[in-house]
Amino acid sequence: MSDDRRLVRWYPRQWRERYGAELLALVEDMSDDGGPTRSQRRSLLLAGAKEHLREQALIGRDRPPLDRVRAGARVILVAWAALVVAGCGFAKFSEHWQMGVPTRDQLVPELMYGVVVVFAAVGALTVTGVVVVALPSLRRTFSAGRWRVLRRPVLAAAGLSLVALSATAGLAVWAHQLTPGQRNGTSVGYLAAFLCWALLIVAMVVAWTIAAIGAERHLEPSPLLARAVWIGAGVLSLSTVAIAAAILAWWIALARSAPWVLAGNQLGAPASPWAWPLVGEAGVAVTAAVVALLGATRLVSASRSRPTAR
Amino acid sequence: MAEKLGRNNEPTVLVLTSLASGAKHGHALARDIEQFAGVRLGPGSLYGAITRLEERGLIEPLPSDDRRRPYEITAAGRVELADAVQSMARVVAAGSTRLGLRTIGLRPA
After folding, report:
1. Cβ of B68 and A29 within 8 Å?
2. Does residue A139 share a domain with residue A38?
3. What does the CA dihedral A64, A70, A74, A79 come to, rounded to 10 degrees?
4. Are B50 and B15 in contact (CB under 8 A)?
5. Averaged pLDDT, groups of 10, chain A, 310 residues long
């Protein structure tokens, strides 16, 4: 790629085809012999990113409200997918946490853990519900010959799910033959296999999210599906925020009353509350909550606006 | 119309103001805007504004064999710019009056 073309690589392809040559001519005119300045490059990077966001109907008000609602819903779905990954990590990290916490200190973390579990179930049911409502539209989409477009991401996600399922079964059988110590880090082979399995799960979640977004783009939503997407996106964003807040509250409660649980130390041993796996999981969860709120804001503001004349 | 043009330093208003005096290509626009408004628009901001304005039918490209394609303001663009200028002028008038400065002539709102 030539340096000129590299300058406009941040823009969407359609935009580049229409304005790319003009923009490069402008950059040439604006630049001294030394080529584009750093601020010009920054301007192109930011503007290119903005054009991408506009193309996806994620910013601006120049796209129809329905496009903006769907864009908001897609953002919330991505946030939920990230939260699912963080939630799996949290579930592993928090295994058997009650065993290290005195009974008198269990109320708040127990409550927060319950919030995580309840909203995880609510989110999973919501996604399932929207998929069920979308089935007739999906069938119509496939009948209209769009299966060819969606085939690759759907088959990739289904294939990864099969591999993940087999790997889960294999790992479970192996785990039952190990001692608790081996399962928790002393067996290097099991640890490596577990990390590969975790990566596989992440890949599966990412693949299904890509497939769902691809399918959503090609769906012609019925009024029922549009309503289901709106309600589902609202419930998912609420669940994402609730789970992120509950993970933080659970962490704070244990950091104050039983930090040794977070460090994996014995009961009563001094320990730092900064457990790095939990820092990562909570960080992803909070980021997902912020992104979900941004998506919900987009969804609500688009729903309130009237269709715009172009 | 989707969005009203607002602040006087918005690239869209600056581009429309520049094109109100005649068709220009990108670099001529950037130089003119710097001259009359003291604002140096980056290439990304300038073409972002051109994209929005063309999408909304407020400017249109002129035929050109060169990569430096000129743009001209449309009738709808003139109406929109007049609206934005009046809006800004009312703020200027109110501010000038309240600060005891000389006011400028305006049409009623």
Report:
1. yes
2. no
3. 90
4. yes
5. 73 93 90 80 91 90 85 94 94 87 90 96 96 89 82 93 95 89 82 92 94 86 87 94 97 91 77 89 97 93 63
Parent domain of A36 = 3-46
Examine residue A58 and state whether it is found in any structural domain, yes or no: no
**Cβ contact A51–B51 (<8 Å):** yes
B31 touches chain A (CB under 8 A): no
Same domain, A145 and A226: yes
Topology at the third CATH level for domain B11-99: Arc Repressor Mutant, subunit A (1.10.10)
Interface contact flag, A61 B3, Cβ < 8 Å? yes
- Tokens at A87, concatenated: 């939630």
Is B68–A42 a contact, with Cβ atoms under 8 angstroms apart? Answer: no
pTM (whole model) above 0.80? no
Q: How many CA atoms lie within 13 A of B38 on its CB side?
A: 1
Residue A60 in domain: no
Q: Dump pLDDT digits (tens) for B24-75.
A: 999 999 999 999 999 999 999 999 999 999 999 999 999 988 889 999 999 9
Number of domains observed in the structure of chain A: 2
* B85-99 tens-digit pLDDT: 999 999 988 988 898
A85 & A140 share domain: yes
Rounded to two decimals, the ipTM of the complex is 0.82
Kindly state whether residues A151 and A181 are assigned to the same domain.
Answer: yes
Q: Tokens at residue A274, please?
A: 């900064």
Length reported for chain B: 109
- State whether residue B2 sits within 8 Å of chain A by CB: yes
Residues A158 and A42 grouped into a single domain = no
Subunit contact A26:B46, Cβ cutoff 8 A: yes
With cut-offs at 50, 70 and 90, classify the pLDDT of residue B1.
very low
User: Amino acid identity of B42?
Assistant: G
Tokens 């889960």 correspond to what residue?
A168
Q: Residues A215, A150: contact at Cβ < 8 Å?
A: yes
Residue B105 has pLDDT above 60, yes or no: no
pLDDT at site B108? 53
In a domain, A72, yes or no: yes
Main-chain dihedrals φ then ψ at residue A32, nearest 5 degrees: -80, -170
Selecting from B44, B46, B66 the residue whose C-beta is nearest the C-beta of A46 gives B44
Residues of A in CB contact (< 8 Å) with B are 15, 19, 21-27, 29-30, 36, 39-40, 42-48, 50-51, 61-62, 308-310
Residues 43-62 of B with CB under 8 A from A: 43-48, 50-52, 55-56
Residue spans of the domains in chain B: they are: 11-99
